[in-house]
What we know:
Bound molecules: S-adenosyl-L-homocysteine, iron/sulfur cluster, FE3-S4 cluster
CATH architecture of the largest domain: 3-Layer(aba) Sandwich
Structural class: alpha/beta
CATH class of the largest domain: Alpha Beta
Low-confidence stretches: none
Number of strands: 21
Number of helices: 13
CATH superfamily of the largest domain: Methylthiotransferase, N-terminal domain
Strand order of the largest sheet: 2-1-3-4-5-6
CATH topology of the largest domain: Rossmann fold
Oligomer: single chain
Distance between the termini: 49 Å
Amino acid sequence: xxxxxxxxxxxxxxxxxxxxxxxxxxxxxxxxxxxxxxxxxxxxxxxxxxxxxxxxxxxxxxxxxxxxxxxxxxxxxxxxxxxxxxxxxxxxxxxxxxxxxxxxxxxxxxxxxxxxxxxxxxxxxxxxxxxxxxxxxxxxxxxxxxxxxxxxxxxxxxxxxxxxxxxxxxxxxxxxxxxxxxxxxxxxxxxxxxxxxxxxxxxxxxxxxxxxxxxxxxxxxxxxxxxxxxxxxxxxxxxxxxxxxxxxxxxxxxxxxxxxxxxxxxxxxxxxxxxxxxxxxxxxxxxxxxxxxxxxxxxxxxxxxxxxxxxxxxxxxxxxxxxxxxxxxxxxxxxxxxxxxxxxxxxxxxxxxxxxxxxxxxxxxxxxxxxxxxxxxxxxxxxxxxxxxxxxxxxxxxxxxxxxxxxxxxxxxxxxxxxxxxxxxxxxxxxxx
Length: 433
Ligand code: SAH
Ligand code: SF4
Ligand code: F3S
């Protein structure tokens, strides 16, 4: 059948969607570019904030219309909303025919076949202690590809739904990770991004995360290694040492701080203080000069005082993050913080959001402005369509995307790019002579 896949959410869903594509093509289904052309519409969904779920519900509303007018379309919903809400989701979203959780992706073709032959709704969204790591070819032609190294999370940050949608943390065996990296490299991939909710607590059969990085580094053909997400409490000197001693591991880390006030960090159950976080950042910057640090910040957590919020702003001024993903706190059903006192109005949270966003904008304008005239080795990711007039885009070792002109044959090459212009958070450049 012809299918169209829509992906919402984080690096794990982007990775899982590649596996869904492999599973579908192995069973003879073919991808199409629009839902209108498709017989099966697949949604790989996210539950991290209420807004993320609302995005999916409104998409489902539009797809329901299409289903009425287009006739015979089948809608299958996978990912975190499926494992969180299970069959209960059919009540709120009656247009959905099939529900499949992140651990049940390989059952999708059989569920589609059963629905087609019986017309009965299908739902499989339980955690499995196995997870499909092997036997699915990575997508061909990628210069930069995600590689899953762990699923689930054991941290139980008080606000977070992930332990409920993805289950306990399970590390993928190192051999299996390496087999996928080798297979990607032989297909022309140059950069791998090791993905998990907490990559630096990885423990795959006696191999810890620094050891895994060393093994991946030995794979010929791979020139760059990135990883996300790292948890500050698990960032130790050994990992910092491996980053410092490597030519392939990029000098860049995504290290979510969430908040700068210790009372908030403790209520969030994050396992570190602001001072400990700053100490780790200082150690990393000492060992890897100029390392880029990106982060996640959440504002409006229950009980967050104005003073707590100003401590978050202080940390932002001190670290001068290279990128920030900024969020308003959103209570999630069944998480401890959904019952916390001191809930803020939307207005208070949004005004803190706006204040933090304005500060980040100022910091970034200074930082990116300072890059004009400098030259960076960008890995060319191929053609881009967002900005007209320029043809290609690439990523610097410090994880900045840069747009430049050139022949699409340069995809996969490492090129020297001189930055010429900044537009918002976007960099533009030219190939250095
Ligand atoms: N594993 C990663 C984060 C995964 S979720 C880590 O521990 O850092 C990505 C980000 O979404 C989080 O870092 C957090 O900033 C945000 N987030 C998670 N739950 C949230 C909630 N209930 N409300 C608002 N933001 C949330
Ligand atoms: Fe959620 Fe915390 Fe796990 Fe990140 S570390 S996925 S925020 S529980
Ligand atoms: Fe969303 Fe699930 Fe990722 S809740 S952030 S898609 S692990």
